[in-house]
Each structure stands twice: as C-alpha cells, then as structure tokens.
Design goal:
0% strand, elongated, 4 helices, mainly alpha
Length: 100
C-alpha cells in the first residue's frame, strides 16, 4: 500500500465543486477505511517482526511474500468491517473539519 497515494486521495476529496455532499461523504468514508487498513497493516508488520522465524516453513522468501499478501488482505477486510473503529473515529473528526 502506498501511503502517499492515500494521502493524495484525502486532498482531492473536495477539489471538485460539482460533487454532492453524499458523494463527498462516501469518498471520505472510503479514504478513512483505507487509512485504517494502512494502520492495521503496519501494526501487523511490527507484530510479525517479533515472531520467531523458525516455524514449520522457516524463513523463506516464499513465506515472507505469502505473509505480506495475507496481512494486506486481512487489513483490508478488518477495515471494511469497522472492527476496531479507527476509520469511524477518523471519519467523524474529518467530517467536523469539512463542515462550514
């Protein structure tokens, strides 16, 4: 996941004067879920670093790639369900700032 790309999404939320409030809310919701997904992915990355790499599959490149892809998807799925509520909290704060 590219953090700079997601930050640029936030910056472009209200650049078009033709967007309705509903469209802006949907876009903001998606960006907040993306933020939560990035946050969770980074948290999982740090957690993986604390594990002993001498498991059944060892420390092969294939396992590292599989783990990375697995945790990317897990992060996205958790963010979609608002399991931790991080995206929801960010949405509420950003919504306050968007209101005139």
């Amino acid at each position: 996941m590219d953090l700079n790309m997601d930050i640029n999404k936030v910056a472009k939320i209200n650049t078009s004067g033709t967007r309705t409030m509903e469209q802006m809310n949907e876009k903001l919701d998606q960006v907040c879920k993306d933020f939560e997904s990035i946050f969770l992915n980074q948290m999982f990355k740090v957690m993986r670093g604390t594990q002993d790499s001498q498991g059944i599959f060892g420390d092969s490149n294939a396992k590292k790639i599989y783990d990375s892809m697995y945790y990317d998807e897990l992060s996205r799925d958790l963010a979609k369900t608002d399991a931790l509520g991080i995206g929801k909290a960010v949405y509420k704060e950003m919504k306050k700032q968007m209101m005139p």
